[in-house]
Amino acid sequence: MSPALVTRLYQGTPHNLRMLGARLRRGELVAAPTETVYGLAGDAMNVAACEAIFAAKERPANDPLIVHVRQRAEAKKLTRWNDAAEAVARAFWPGPLTMVLPKREHVPDIVTSGRPSVAIRMPQHPLFRKLLAAADRPLAAPSANPFGYISPTTAQHVKASLGGRIRSILDGGPCAIGIESTIVDLRDPAHPTVLRPGAITADQLSRVLGVTVRAPKVNTVSHSQAADAPGMLERHYSPSTPLTLHDTLPGYTGTREARVYFHRADLSGSNEYSLSTDGSGESAARRMFAMLRELDAGDWSHIHLERVPREDPWAPSVNDRLRRAAARSS
């Protein structure tokens, strides 16, 4: 067994960014903030670096990586670009939107899990963009956590779960959005499909593309299949504590069972929590992963959690994560 690494947090100073960029060029990994969640970044064109990502996360080989770029020109060198991709990129990049497109031959198969397509995104977070510039190459960056566990939205979350496995964490504070990017499949521009819901909705994409973007209610791949994009496996984002979802919380469940309302101002018990601070799905998304981590670290025998109401525009994205998080308990 390899000895544990000393894991350090770095602020985004010019010196540190140059140092971390050099480490990435040498094939090392750097955890870094995006506007969605923290990612575990490595040189997307370096097979050994990508293998290190899979090893650090204990990620199965059938779950592909998202490649992050700083400019559209870089994306075009990695994909078979089309007019739909151009329209979507102009509308939503940089931002929390990933596109699946046919890949060019030089994109390593390990990045795409052997599929002929690649997931690609231009992130908005200023520190990640500076890191891309410092590395001067596209970066593969899945969420910076052990596979299947709750995604990290702070540098401290990363250190708690990957400390000893990686050397470098770029600390950019809490992530602004809190859930992973929307993934849209544009391999067939006439029939675009949302593979993973996120902050950008199918309706927004439809308005830009001028065609209906399909958004399946449930989009799940078994753990034995190769996925077209990350975040599609049936079980994901899961706490160790059993989790049950409810449209409305039931009555008394026991003092050792945490009760998480979607939004409730008059919490009365020590086991009661509110997922949203203001009654919006957007704030629930921002708090969800951090709250699940906090509850998972507590002495709870079970977590009962209310779904985001269906009428909220963030409901598909947040409830998708919660459904997969609860799958371990099913």
Provide a descriptive summary of the structure in words.
By secondary structure, the chain is α/β, with parallel strands linked by helices. It folds into two domains: 8-209, DHBP synthase (Alpha-Beta Complex); 243-329, no CATH class. 30% of the residues lie in helices and 17% in strands. The chain is built from ten helices and 14 strands. The protein has helices at 14-25, 47-57, 72-78, 83-92, 109-112, 126-135, 155-162, 202-209, 281-296, 315-326; strands spanning 8-10, 30-33, 38-43, 66-68, 97-102, 117-121, 139-140, 168-170, 182-185, 193-196, 243-246, 257-261, 272-274, 302-306. The strands form two sheets. The chain has a ten-stranded mixed β-sheet with strand order 1-8-2-3-7-4-6-5-9-10, sandwiched between helices. Strands 11-14-12-13 form a four-stranded parallel β-sheet, covered by helices on one side. It starts with 7 loop residues before the first strand and ends with a helix. The mean pLDDT is 93. Required for the formation of a threonylcarbamoyl group on adenosine at position 37 (t(6)A37) in tRNAs that read codons beginning with adenine. InterPro entries: DHBP_synth_RibB-like_a/b_dom (IPR017945), Sua5-like_dom (IPR006070), Sua5/YwlC_C (IPR038385), Sua5_C (IPR005145), T(6)A37_SUA5 (IPR010923), TC-AMP_synthase_SUA5 (IPR050156).
